[in-house]
Amino acid sequence: MKPKYKRILLKLSGEALMGEGAYGISRPTIDAIVAEIAAVGRLGVEIGVVIGGGNIFRGVAPGAAGMDRATADYMGMLATVMNALALQDAMRQAGVASRVQSALNIEQVVEPYIRGKAIRYLEEGKIVIFAAGTGNPFFTTDTAAALRASEVGAEIVLKATKVDGVYTSDPKKDPAAKRYRRVSFDEAIQRNLKVMDATALALCRDQRLPVNVFSIFRAGALGRVVAGEDEGTLVHV
Predict the structure, then answer these.
(1) Backbone dihedral angles phi then psi of residue 116, each to the nearest 5 degrees
(2) Pairing between β-strand 211-215 and β-strand 233-236 as defined by DSSP bridges
(3) Contact 214, 162 (CB under 8 A)
(4) What are the residue boundaries of the structural domains of the chain, listed by start?
């Protein structure tokens, strides 16, 4: 398999780590995700990962009701650090070299995000896991993915979800829903297709950074996306 992209940014939701559970981390699920990432890494693709925290805590979740929004968002950022450490541990056990960089300064646990260092790690073939979102409340990890991808010069953002692409409507509720193979950023924003939040979409559009939405639970899907095959939905300028 010949990769189409040299450097990618993989956006993993925290919910993807839950497997069939209601919360937390499923070890078999995280091991399966790591195996997919490792297979792409062996092709010589440089991989950055931005991970969410929704499986542990999310600032806009019902559990945060009544809390100050900024405080809730900081708690969500800390949840992403926990997920990043779990992902790094699974990678270490699989023999995959990785580094965690956090937008929040927690030096006893993970190193701080430094752009030049992150790029050097990528060039060395290490997987860089970006934790704590942008380090600011009121911004999603989707926006963090768009930001980090732009900063490190990734060629595409791969948004790994539970659904195998972007649909005309919710495929769970509407059996007639059709998957978009390709859609423009402007159309995604105008139709409110919920690919990413509007800030992340606008940033990717302005940076001419394509986004591919696919299911991380389809075996080999990540590799097919990296090879440029018709997998998921490509959002383009």
Answers:
(1) -60, -40
(2) antiparallel
(3) no
(4) 7-236
Helix, strand or coil for residue 91? helix
- 3-class SS of residue 115: helix
Alpha carbon 222 to its chain's center: 12
- Tell me the angle at which helices 141-152 and 115-123 cross, rounded to the nearest 10 degrees: 70
Distances 180 to 24, 159, 162 between C-alpha atoms, Å: 31, 15, 16
CATH topology assigned to domain 7-236: Carbamate kinase (3.40.1160)
pLDDT, one tens digit for every residue, the chain (237 residues): 789 999 999 999 998 898 787 788 999 999 999 999 999 999 999 999 999 999 998 776 777 778 899 999 999 999 999 999 999 999 999 999 999 999 999 999 999 999 999 999 999 999 999 999 999 999 999 999 999 999 999 999 999 988 899 998 888 888 888 999 999 999 998 888 888 988 999 999 999 999 999 999 999 999 999 999 999 999 998
At 38 the three-state DSSP class reads helix
> What are the two backbone dihedrals, phi and then psi, of residue 49, each rounded to the nearest 5 degrees?
-130, 130
**pTM for the structure as a whole:** 0.94
Tokens (6 digits) for 185 = 């950023």
Distance of alpha carbon 99 from alpha carbon 119, whole angstroms: 11
Dist. CA 115–CA 16, nearest whole Å: 26
With 0-12 / 13-18 / 19 or more C-beta atoms within 10 angstroms meaning exposed / middle / buried, residue 95 is exposed
